[in-house]
Design the sequence.
């Protein structure tokens, strides 16, 4: 190689290495942006539909309504807004406070064979607050105002609210108790009910959860990407309903709007598939039983603290149902790896459906089982590093 070529080679090497040093220095001096929250930004879509049922033809109202079929579509979000950690002097116990914004829309498509179809909506926007004392106690509060109406009829819009307060006592990793209060429309009317629950088994393994008045669930994780459950839960709501069809319900046939309540109990099996960290979907099927529909006159009860007076009700035979949903979770989060108190916080946030809809999300943030570095693939190692990193 000639002297000229050697000189060019040395100059080029010097330039390349100098550029590398500047790049490394720039990266090293750039501050690391750490995650602010423990909860992910969550968006969910849920679709539910049972089969058509025939109403009792003896009742005059039922003779006009003829058949009953519904389908429900819910779209919602759950976003952390404020997270504050409090450390002890030895930094071994972490207390934290969380505030989240939740909202969504829920459309109920009601098809009575004898009258026109109705689309009843419930749009909500509320907040959630959680306090974790870092030991055994966890407090949860949700306040969710919502507007319900019969779409296409402005005179039916009305504002209501639901709220739930829960205290969770983590006795140990395998057992927890919950006590509280809920103001709910899940049972087709306004009810103020006690909240009582317990869990047997670790949240990252097979466990059984009983949460009155929300759900009863046996959760069985199957590896990292599949989670199954068998459950029983109520589903329902309380809506405004346009009476443009002139349903003659006793003395209220002149009313321009009615209140419509529905409730049912679902017994089903659900399979959650978690292909990536940001996306999961589920399929659920089973039977619906204890179906009841009710119509109320709007003028029957001025005091909205109490349940509305009954005017027309009918029990409907059960049938099958199909439920499908998708969940998207975005953003980096603080590690909760092996933090049992944060596992409980995640479980409460995912288990109490926003806006009184009683739609449960899987606990995908909670790793199932123990990680083994010797047998993990590249993606699994990355997940483990992110789960145990220091912050």
Sequence:
């Amino acid at each position: 190689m000639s002297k000229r070529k050697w000189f060019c080679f040395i100059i080029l090497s010097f330039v390349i290495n100098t550029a590398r040093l500047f790049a490394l220095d720039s990266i090293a001096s750039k501050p690391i942006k750490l995650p602010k929250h423990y909860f992910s930004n969550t968006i969910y879509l849920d679709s539910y539909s049972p089969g058509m049922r025939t109403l009792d033809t003896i009742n005059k109202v039922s003779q006009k309504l003829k058949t009953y079929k519904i389908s429900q579509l819910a779209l919602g979000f759950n976003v952390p807004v404020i997270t504050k950690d409090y450390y002890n002097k030895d930094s071994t116990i972490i207390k934290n406070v969380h505030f989240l914004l939740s909202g969504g829309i829920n459309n109920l498509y009601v098809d009575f064979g004898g009258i026109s179809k109705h689309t009843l909506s419930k749009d909500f926007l509320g907040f959630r607050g959680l306090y974790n004392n870092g030991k055994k106690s966890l407090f949860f509060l949700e306040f969710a105002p919502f507007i319900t109406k019969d779409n296409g009829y402005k005179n039916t819009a009305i504002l209501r609210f639901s709220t739930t307060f829960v205290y969770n006592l983590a006795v140990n990793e395998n057992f927890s108790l919950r006590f509280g209060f809920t103001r709910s429309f899940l049972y087709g009317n306004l009810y103020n009910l006690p909240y009582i629950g317990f869990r047997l088994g670790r949240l990252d393994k097979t466990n059984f959860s009983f949460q009155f008045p929300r759900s009863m669930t046996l959760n069985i994780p199957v590896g990292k990407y599949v989670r199954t459950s068998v459950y029983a839960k109520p589903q329902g709501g309380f809506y405004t309903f346009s009476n443009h069809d002139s349903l003659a319900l006793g003395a209220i046939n002149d009313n321009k709007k009615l209140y419509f309540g529905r409730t049912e109990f679902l017994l089903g099996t659900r399979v959650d598939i978690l292909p990536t960290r940001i996306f999961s979907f589920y399929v659920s099927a089973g039977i619906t039983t204890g179906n009841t529909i009710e119509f109320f006159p709007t003028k029957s009860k001025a005091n909205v603290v109490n349940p509305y007076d009954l005017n027309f009700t009918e029990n409907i035979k059960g049938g099958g149902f199909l439920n499908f949903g998708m969940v998207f979770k975005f953003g980096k989060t603080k590690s909760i790896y092996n933090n049992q108190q944060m596992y409980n916080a995640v479980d409460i946030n995912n288990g109490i459906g926003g806006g009184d809809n009683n739609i449960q999300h899987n606990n995908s943030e909670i790793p199932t089982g123990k990680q083994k570095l010797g047998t993990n693939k590249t993606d699994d190692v990355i997940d483990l590093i992110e789960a145990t990193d220091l912050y």
